[in-house]
Design brief:
Chain lengths: ~375, ~375
């Protein structure tokens, strides 16, 4: 292994099941210098490292990447230029303002801009949803900041089961591409990242030449199934089996919702084959799986509602697509999200007046 | 007060907040002999009576009606003929078979039939929902059993707050009528019940000449609002205020759902005025009220889903009415009810196969 300080520098933000295995994958490959921002477990991990049980890489007792930071600010003050800023946190635009992705990465972008002298900063969003890149584009001038925004879509079963303890039970499968299909620099940066990430025989990592298609495709599952399970608080098989005649959940919720996504995507010339609908209904029929929004709802954490459902519905509205099923799911989940926002102090409800208190941050 | 054993005999089934205040109202009037079936609190109440704080009747420390029974079977073996059988339990056709209303009242109906020699048996269903009388009609021949089935719709705020302790905070308002509009005996029995129940200056009780209309009217609220609050687990004001721009819950869920109820009722020539929609949206806008289905859902108890939403949707289907909003609420709530049915042992789910176990009682 070469002197890691000479290698491309990558900082991973978000030290959950996804972020830690992501950092491990990069470190394992040995072609980059890997930093990880760890919020809650920093002291523990800084001292002892992670205990990891990984179906891809095996057992680790005290693993750490090259650098760990408590905050993004600390990392930005380290004097380093980061070639890749990898964001693995949840994307919740209706969450606290300071946790918006653009705000979280701002110190690193600014610092890179100061140090970089024309070097490219690549932001890789390993997150769910559609139109998540626009928040970054709106805030930072791509030319001025030499900024590429990259898309990462990951399939992985990995969970932080205790402070500093990660269990990866499902293989890591990552596709990376450029949000701008015509931007050669961004495309090259995405391809380069795949090289830095892919460990032959361990994980899967591929270049994604049609990011928008891949995101719409994943939305078929997330907008229809993730959302429904969150509302009723049940794993996918129970949602299917508890329907009227064991059929109504798939016939009257999942499939019509997915057909609406197909129709919305079609107005952007993204053509999703009808066979994908059956594919996604079947994919977790016999797996005791609770999608992320369902888990977040249960834990009292904010759900990725806007990027999974709110953004596609904005596109539907602009393009005149009827979405009766997705809209109902959305209007119900907005209320459920309101409940979570109240619990998390993002809005206040005055029971004596039976009204929202206006002063608190609104959507 | 006359010798109560000579008065019309009334038995109230269900000793929750509604049933106990109902029994008290009848007892207070002094024109009937009142029995109450008390399941869980029987021993306590038999010994000490109820402690009641009532906005209609004041304070009682040790109140009991003329008779208390532990079970309907015990009551049916008492050798009495009951002129009125008043059912105040929840109506849950998809619950345990033994708790179906027709099964619960069967011993009393049979006993009356044996003793009655042509006397009329009046069954008063003080319950939510539409088409609840049909279950009784299907099981008992009305002529053979000299049976009248009466409808009671009650507005009351009354809760059992502890074993043997009842708190009534909202005035009792009852309307009673005959499910069969043309049946003079039933109409007279309903009017008679109002006389036995109404305490001038205390409660309100009125004869209802158009039962079907009243039930569709109440369904406007229950099918749209009760259901939504149950899904998201929030009181009505929060549901309204947490919507997009504080508007989507009423504009995109409550009102369209109510318009669908109006359309279904119209196919039965029940004409609900559009102004009722606004009325019901407003009625609990500023009251911190959680409807019954929401409370049941929270407590892990089965919801009155079929009589509130399933039955109207059957009528809609038969009569060709489109119900996109109500149907979505229904399909989601059927899954939520499945969760409650599993918790209550009414269905079994095999996680190793990710499938329902067939042998358990199904819908």
């Amino acid at each position: 292994m070469s002197d890691s300080s000479q290698l491309p520098k990558i900082i991973v933000i978000g030290a959950g099941g996804v972020g830690v295995i992501g950092a491990l994958s990069l470190y394992y490959k040995g072609l980059s210098n890997v930093s990880l921002v760890i919020r809650s477990d920093y002291d523990l991990v800084d001292k002892r490292g992670y205990k990891i049980t990984s179906c891809d890489y095996g057992q680790f007792e005290n693993w750490k990447p090259h650098h760990v930071y408590r905050t993004v600010e600390d990392a930005s003050e380290s004097g380093q230029f980061f070639d890749y800023i990898v964001v693995t946190t949840k994307n919740i635009p209706d969450g606290p303002a300071h946790s918006a992705v653009s705000q979280v990465i701002r110190p690193l972008i600014d610092n890179n801009h100061k140090l970089g002298e024309g070097c490219q900063t690549n932001v890789l969003l390993m997150q769910n949803g559609i139109d998540i890149e626009k928040e970054i584009w709106n805030l930072f001038d791509r030319k001025q900041y030499h900024l590429n925004v990259l898309s990462g879509i990951q399939l992985i079963g990995s969970t932080k089961v205790a402070p500093g303890v990660i269990d990866q039970v499902g293989r890591d499968n990552l596709i990376v591409g450029a949000f701008e299909r015509e931007n050669k620099d961004a495309i090259n940066a995405a391809k380069k990242f795949v090289e830095l990430y892919h460990n032959e025989g361990k994980n899967c990592a591929e270049f994604d030449e049609n990011v928008r298609y891949s995101r719409w495709k994943k939305l078929l599952y997330n907008a229809a199934i993730n959302t429904t399970t969150a509302l009723v608080g049940l794993d996918v098989p129970r949602c299917l089996e508890f329907g009227v005649d064991r059929k109504s959940t798939e016939e009257n919720i999942f499939k019509p919702a997915m057909r609406e996504i197909v129709a919305i995507a079609a107005t952007e010339n993204v053509l999703l084959d009808e066979s994908l609908i059956t594919f996604f209904v079947e994919i977790t029929r016999h797996i005791m799986f609770k999608p992320s929004m369902c888990v977040d709802h249960e834990k009292g954490q904010l759900m990725e509602l806007e990027v999974i459902l709110g953004n596609p519905l904005k596109i539907a509205k602009n393009n005149g697509v009827q979405t009766p099923v997705l809209s109902m799911l959305y209007y119900l989940l907005v209320v459920a999200q309101g409940r979570l926002r109240e619990k998390n102090g993002l809005l206040k409800f005055d029971e004596s007046k039976a009204e929202l208190v206006d002063s608190v941050q609104s959507l």
